[in-house]
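This part of the workshop introduces the protein records we will be handling. Each record describes a single protein and holds just a pair of labelled lines. Instead of coordinates, the fold is spelled out as a row of discrete tokens. To make this concrete, we reproduce a full record directly below:
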Amino acid sequence: MEPESASMPARVGVEELGAPSQHDPLMHAHESLELVRVDEGCMDCIAGTSVNRLEAGDVCLINAGRMHRAREVEGHRCTYSVMHLDPAKLTRDEDVYARYIAPVLEDESFDFMLGCDCAGTAGEICRLMDQIAELERERPQAYELEVIALAHLVFRQIYLRRHALADELAAGSVSQDDMVLRAMTSLIYERYAEHISLEDIARAGGVSRSKASAVFKARLGTSPIEFLNRYRLEVAAIKLVRTDDTIARIASSCGFSQQSYFNRVFGRAWGMTPKQYRAAQRQKTAA
């Protein structure tokens, strides 16, 4: 039986990044929007092409469908609140959905990070998250109605933030390198299963191979090909857990022409073979 809150448009919970692990947590995506607020410590929130260092009080939005992960910083523990906002449950009014909700969801480049600003957008989102969390804990009579109202106020802040970012882009305040990186990583996300060369990646951004490498190094701390292979391995890891496809088929579908090579690079990244990884993750899920 699903909990009563399953039908609500918003849910708030508290999570923790703990002891150092052998590798970064897997990239994953949700159908809902996710708001992350660091309560104690610090963490890296990696969403799409963005790597944001979050400290206590900072808020980060990951849009629906965006690949992302949380990464601990120097092994320190980090406690953070997570709010999942289901846009499909906000309204049945088609006009409101088309005018305000769809533009946010359909903007593949939109996610944001807000510093600790008690009087601004970050502060307002934090206050709304705390109110929702308290309502979910206490569950006073008809609390669901207030949660629904607060969820709309949260989404309004998200919509206004996107509108402000669009104005900044029109004014040219978004850097050219960020736009180049967005174009290059979009190619990787869309065509990771194909043979992609450094030249292909650079061409997608309209820059030289040396410039492409420099942008990746400056923004993401890695090379374009290393980023491509890392993303392929992350997709492969997800498929190992969520599908019953053979390892050979998964390797091929993620751009690895030889299973033996896939096994080697997967072992270096995750510390175990693909078969062992599948068994371990499924055992963990069952437990």
User: Anything to note?
Assistant: The CA atoms of residues 267 and 276 lie 10 Å apart.
